[in-house]
Amino acid sequence: MTEGLDTSASIEEASARAEKLRDELRYHAHRYYSLDAPEISDAAYDALIRELEAIEARWPELITPDSPTQRIGAVPSGQFAPVRHAQRMYSLDNAMDLGELDAWLERVEREVAGRNCAFVCELKIDGSSLALTYEDRMLVRAATRGDGTTGEDVTANVRTVKSVPLKLLVGGVARAQETLFGDESPWRVEVRGEVYMPKVSFERLNAEQEAAGLPLFANPRNAAAGAVRQKDPAITASRDLSTFMYQVVEPRALGLESQSAALQWLRDAGFRVNPDIKACALGADVHAFCEWALQARDTLPYEIDGVVVKVDSFALQDELGFTSKAPRWAIAFKFPPEEKTTVLREIRVQVGRTGALTPVAEFDPVSVAGSTIARATLHNEDEIRRKDLRIGDTIIVRKAGDVIPEVVGPVTRLRDGSETEWSMPMTCPSCESEVWREEGEVVPRCTNAGCPAQRLERLGHWAGRGALDIDGMGSEIITRLVEQGLLHDVADYYLLTRDTLASLDLGRTKKDGTPVLLGETMAAKLMASIEASKTRPLAKLVFGLGIRHVGATVAEALTAAYSSLDALMAATVEDLAAVEGVGPVIAGSVHAFAENAENVDIVHRLQTAGVRTAEERTAPEQPQTLAGTTWVLTGALEHYTRDEAGMALKALGAKVAGSVSKKTSYVVAGAEAGSKLERALELGVPVLDEAALQAVIDSGNLPA
Ligand SMILES: [Zn+2]
After folding, report:
1. Catalytic option among 124, 310, 334, 540
2. Cα of 347 to ligand 1 centre, how many Å?
3. Selection from 287, 251, 285, 257 nearest residue 269 by Cα
């Protein structure tokens, strides 16, 4: 039974009615979602939708893909297919302050030399870029930006975003089809813009996540990007996303000659276009708009992180052209880091993986640049003295590079005398052992090998992205595993079973009071991640062991010299110190690690569990005829740079060193060789000229 048709209606009548309803609904949806100017009540709109649904239920053959009832379609199968963008999605050059913006404006005005150069200023929405393709007015594809060249097909999800027209408007606006679409047929157009999550929706989503015991989103941008990539479009639909479109990809085909004309076209076709776009005749107006936007950012219902300025005329854009990375006719004016004030409540000491004690500021939660922050590292005690921070201070906080929370300093004039100074505790907050501050170091350490806090950090380090990359093994799960006695050291990861993980109590309760368990799905995912971590490159494994002073770069250097963990652990301090990029301090640290019985046991258990601790190295291409010799290059060579000559020698197995010693086998002296040549002569080290070097490289034989 339908409301607008009687029961005896024919399919022809129903079809005509459905088409009318769709046009009407499209018109009102556009007024509501894109123009923010509804003409009818929500209830009236719902009544029209219900009538259309009833017709479509009775005559399913009348359902069209662009029907407003069809936003949520079938769940797409598996992965998002890659989409190659017909035209690269450029990123823009940045102006980091108003001075850089002015310099850019002057440069552009100089280039266009006296001709009328108008600009268009658009707010830079902090969302996720989107490309929409329409064929014959129908939405056929939505793609993410990806790397700018290839994105992902997210059509099924983007269809659920109500401000994205499934069919472009014609009748809804007072324009004829010809003027709107040009005369190309069949007609295809791609438009681009930003999909974003409004601030209120973001806060609501995080409140829901928290109530359900799920991880929170860091900021609205991540939340929007995540929503667009959901496996189930119904979830995307529930996330309350919106869009602002700002680009027509081939505007000339539609007879558009400027960015402002393209924006008007987008509005007319039914897209949501940001209302705060400003056309500026002069650079000074652009400057003023950017200053306005800086003030307005907090009052807008969505996050912005700058202003995009474009030269309005497409003809002038063509003239200005592109650099290898970005258009010359546009720039992104980036806002300076947003600063907020809050109250410093506590300075807590965190114990790192190597026992380093780091003070962390804990302050009243405050929203900065799109996310809520409540703590920031203070690095060390000297830093706290330098900034003169006291507990109870009103402090200024911001995000460095808009990512890492940072305490700028106290507002000292707001002190009332109740603030207290802080000093580093003498004992470890985790194990209460006495802490030790080595001379010349700014950071005190807990030297207790069994310190629980250090253990957690070591376990987290092993699973981290730079190391063995056990995807999904976050600090919360690690903490629970340690608490329940399932994880003591990194070798224990490989004894975990799917059942143990699935029933892991996360220490939280659902609304109904039952405990939150990790569950089968996550357990299966973690087991796969653990399995995958067994075959990471040796350098990642060595880094993952968390040997003091062995960062990612040193681990690379060590594993370039040693192709197995066994060989590395058997090396003497002297051998280790001879590795390029490894000094005596690192060598001592690696050796001490290898001497420790507990570490030997861990390595043995890793090997038993099937973790790969050796790498097959492909045989060197050239015979290593210079193996065992050490060379020093000095002075300018005619045919090589010193690096090139060094590479050629290394390819033959030689070691190339930076300074001359008794161990040096040969010194190659080019023009204007200085002290190294003198030292070689002093020590009686053979000295070769460039011709002799050339002969060695050509023949692969040692000098006669
Ligand atoms: Zn400790």
Report:
1. 124
2. 17
3. 251
Exposure b/e, 119-129, CB count within 10 A at least 16 = b? bbbbbbbbbbb
Sheet holding 188-196, edge to edge: 138-144, 128-135, 188-196, 242-248
Q: What length is written for the chain?
A: 704
In sign, the C-alpha dihedral spanning 218, 220, 223, 229 is negative
Find out whether 5 and 17 touch, Cβ atoms under 8 Å.
Answer: yes
Closest C-alpha among 214, 266, 258 to residue 235: 214
Query: For 619-634, what is the HEC assignment?
Result: CCCCCCCCCCCEEEEE
If you measure from the C-alpha of residue 599 to the centroid of ligand 1, how many angstroms do you get, rounded to a whole number? 18
Task: For 363, list phi and psi in degrees, rounded to 5.
Answer: -135, 170
pLDDT, tens only, 511-560: 888 888 999 999 999 999 999 999 999 999 999 998 988 988 899 899 98
170 C-alpha to center of ligand 1: Å?
70
If you average pLDDT over every residue of the chain, what do you get?
Answer: 87
- Residue 351 Cα to ligand 1 midpoint, Å, equals 7
Residues, Cβ < 5 Å to ion ligand 1: 428, 430-431, 446, 448, 451
C-alpha distances out from residue 668 to 176, 363, 642, 665, 703, Å: 80, 60, 10, 10, 11
- 202-234 pLDDT, tens digit per residue, is 888 888 887 776 777 777 888 898 899 888 888
Query: How many other C-beta atoms are found inside a 10 Å radius of the C-beta of residue 624?
Result: 14
- Comparing C-alpha atoms, which of 342, 283, 340 is closest to residue 116? 283
Q: How far is the CA of 457 from the centre of ligand 1 (A)?
A: 11
Query: What tens digit of pLDDT does each residue of 252-284 get?
Result: 888 899 999 999 999 989 999 999 999 999 889
CB atoms within 10 A of CB 602: 17
- Give the pLDDT mean for 357-362: 94
Signed CA dihedral, 637, 639, 643, 645: sign only: negative
Ligand 1 centroid to Cα of residue 424, in Å, is 14
Q: How far is CA 240 from CA 153, 192, 201, 202, in A?
A: 20, 19, 6, 9
CA atoms within 13 A on the CB side of 696: 26
Residue 470 · residue 530 · CB < 8 Å:
yes
Between CA 64 and CA 213 the distance in angstroms is: 40
Q: How far is the CA of 478 from the centre of ligand 1 (A)?
A: 18
Centroid of ligand 1 to alpha carbon of 355 (angstroms): 7
Structure tokens given for 546:
């968390």
Mean pLDDT of 331-353: 90
Look up 525 and say whether it is catalytic: no
Which tokens hold the place of 126?
């902090």
Question: What is the distance in A from the centroid of ligand 1 to the CA of 458?
Answer: 13
Pairing outcome for strands 394-400 and 404-410:
antiparallel
- A 10 A CB-CB count for 688 gives 17
Instruction: Report the C-alpha gap between 453 and 433 in whole angstroms.
Output: 12
Q: How many angstroms separate the CA atoms of 615 and 619, rounded? A: 12
How far apart CA 435 and CA 453 sit, in angstroms, is: 14
User: Domains in the chain, please, with CATH?
Assistant: 11-70 (1.10.287.610), 94-334 (3.30.470.30), 339-436 (2.40.50.140), 452-535 (1.10.150.20), 538-608 (1.10.150.20), 630-699 (3.40.50.10190)
